[in-house]
Specification:
Layout (H helix, E strand, L loop, with lengths): L8 H16 L2 E10 L2 E9 L6 H18 L7 E5 L10 H6 L4 E10 L2 E12 L2 E6 L2 E6 L3 E6 L3 H6 L1
Parallel strand pairs: 2-3
Antiparallel strand pairs: 1-2, 4-5, 4-8, 5-6, 6-7
Helix pairs in contact: 1-2
Length: 162
């Protein structure tokens, strides 16, 4: 489901490629159209219940490249990148906050709250314009306008012990 609407390139591309992603068994995690230096990059991030590896990225790239060429939603040259969101993923869309509820997160703030610009906790979810976390047993609510970045935190030490 396109979270952007059709008023921008990311939303248009999302709509164009979503049927193909579904057919291949992938979920679109995010679509970004960004400038890096002199280059324009169309970044498509995909996910699946089984995770994503390099062959999945190659399969998706080969499947959508001709579709994007035919639809031609972007004027000018750009680089197409297809990747996995990874285990430590940035959460930006409402859907991200829903599916990642229960995960440990790091929240970077624009302005300090209670003397800190970084808050760690377990993601409860997003309610309206607030991000809700469970921090040391207590609920913490942060206004989204003060949130710069939310990233899941993976416990690498615990994973190494398994």
């Amino acid at each position: 489901m396109n979270p952007y609407g059709k008023k921008n390139i990311a939303g248009t591309v999302w709509d164009i490629i979503e049927p193909t992603a579904d057919e291949l068994g992938y979920e679109i995690w995010n679509v970004e159209y960004v400038r890096e230096g002199a280059d324009m990059n169309l970044r498509i991030t995909i996910d699946s219940e089984n995770g994503i590896d390099l062959s999945d990225c190659e399969k998706m790239t080969r499947a959508i490249d001709p579709i994007l060429d035919e639809a031609d939603p972007i004027e000018g040259a750009y680089y197409l990148e297809v990747s996995s969101p990874g285990v430590e993923r940035v959460l930006t869309l409402d859907h991200h906050f829903e599916v990642m509820a229960g995960w440990d997160v790091e929240v970077k703030l624009f302005r300090a709250v209670d003397g800190t610009k970084t808050v760690y906790g377990v993601l409860v979810g997003k309610e309206g314009n607030e991000l809700v976390l469970n921090c040391d047993g207590g609920e913490v609510r942060l206004e989204m306008k003060n949130v710069a970045k939310v990233t899941t935190v993976y416990d690498w030490q615990a994973a190494m012990k398994d």
